[in-house]
Amino acid sequence: MASESCDVCERSVRIAGGIGDLWNFAFESTQGLTLELTDGSEFFLCFDCMEKLPDDHEPTAEDVADLRERTEPVEDDGNHFWHWR
């Protein structure tokens, strides 16, 4: 079981797969992806933040920075693998 922090909201989200899941039979799904944007930048975003990116043009690093400015970091609630608020 692995996790990574979203580059926008800073929430630690689950990344499915890997040797850890093999031993504990965890079948939960991944809750974020690394996006490589057209300007060559790369970010790991949770699905909630990904949905907030503009859909009228190809997102860029500037769009991610704008989203980060508009998003309050999610407080750590002890639930490291789910992005529920």
Automatic annotation (TrEMBL):
Taxonomy, superkingdom: Archaea
One Pfam family from the record: DUF7561
Name by which UniProt lists this protein: Small CPxCG-related zinc finger protein
